[in-house]
Write a structure and sequence with these properties.
The chain is α/β, with parallel strands linked by helices and 301 residues long. It contains nine helices and 18 strands. The protein has a seven-stranded mixed beta sheet. The chain is globular, with a radius of gyration of 21 Å.
Length: 301
């Protein structure tokens, strides 16, 4: 059975706290695992969350500030120590190649697994597989930063009442799905488009076009909300979003489930992020993330 869920490994911004590790997020998508922004301590958080190096197929780094990448060295070395038997691909801004190289080879270790480097230097597709298309979009932050989006290909949903009306049943249903036509019945007559699921990961950024493009129509949106709305000027100065801004993006984009994360240590009550998100008019499913949380991708409509 396929599993699609987000495993939250860390939710702090800039510095870890007693209750929040540096960033780290694993998306389980069918048989693949995509690790986003492995901050310091990610390897230990993986152990606590029951995530193994063998679960990783891709690593996506949004930008090279330490809270989003300092755990990369340990994760890469663990992939090699455990001799992960499948290819692992790493995506990151090409402008930060020197930082990636330093982290990948931070210490001496035996390299047993080939990590394929596919850096990002422009908006567009990074990979197309049978179960998703992965794309990147430029964000607005003091250093070059990209957000990521997975889009499942659209499929078809067979409609029982139309099948019955055309006298199609039993093994003939599968044959019609495979071949597209059965006698004088075409698949278009007995089905409708089943929209593929969509996931986006948006970290450190001001409001910009890339944020809106990534969020559009998402079933699950993970987005930073470093500041509360009363500190909007600080957010803009440092290249971040407020809870209200993130929620307004999700509201306008028709997001089904919004996950707020990357919280500044200056705030004592994390639930205030949720209250401000609701005040901004977002009425979908809302999660104020905490470490080691698991969030399922919403079921298809």
């Amino acid at each position: 059975m396929s599993v699609r869920e987000l495993v939250v490994l860390g939710t702090a911004s800039q510095v870890p706290t007693r209750h929040r590790n540096h960033n780290g997020y694993l998306l389980r998508w069918d048989g693949e695992g995509i690790l986003f922004d492995p901050g310091e301590g990610t390897q230990r958080q993986m152990l606590r969350a029951g995530v193994a190096a063998h679960d990783l197929n891709r690593i996506c780094v949004t930008h090279f500030h330490g809270d989003h990448c300092l755990g990369l060295a340990g994760v890469v070395q663990r992939i090699n120590l455990d001799r992960v038997p499948h290819p692992v691909t790493a995506h990151y801004p090409r402008s930060g190649q020197r930082f990636f190289d330093r982290l990948r080879y931070a210490t001496a270790y035996r390299e047993t697994v080939g990590v394929t480097e596919v850096p990002v230097d422009a908006d567009g597709d990074l990979a197309v597989t049978r179960s998703y298309r992965l794309e990147a979009r430029r964000l607005s932050h003091p250093v070059e930063s990209y957000g990521y989006r997975l889009t499942e290909p659209d499929g078809l949903r067979m409609l029982p009442e139309r099948l019955a009306a055309h006298g199609v049943s039993g093994p003939d249903v599968g044959r019609l799905q495979r071949e597209g036509v059965l006698g004088d019945v075409t698949i278009d007559q007995v089905s409708e488009v089943r929209r593929g699921q969509r996931f986006a990961f948006v970290m450190d950024t001001r409001l910009c076009e890339g944020v809106h493009v990534l969020a559009e129509g998402c079933d699950l949106l993970v987005i930073e909300s470093t500041f509360l709305d009363e500190d909007a000027s600080l957010a803009a100065e440092h290249g971040h979003l407020t809870a209200g801004q993130a929620a307004a993006v999700a509201r306008d984009a028709g997001v089904r489930h919004l996950v707020l994360t990357h919280f500044s240590q200056r705030y004592a009550d994390p639930e205030e992020f949720g209250r401000q998100a609701r005040a901004a008019g977002y009425d979908g499913e809302l999660t104020v993330a905490h470490d080691l949380l698991r969030v399922p991708v919403p079921k298809r409509r």
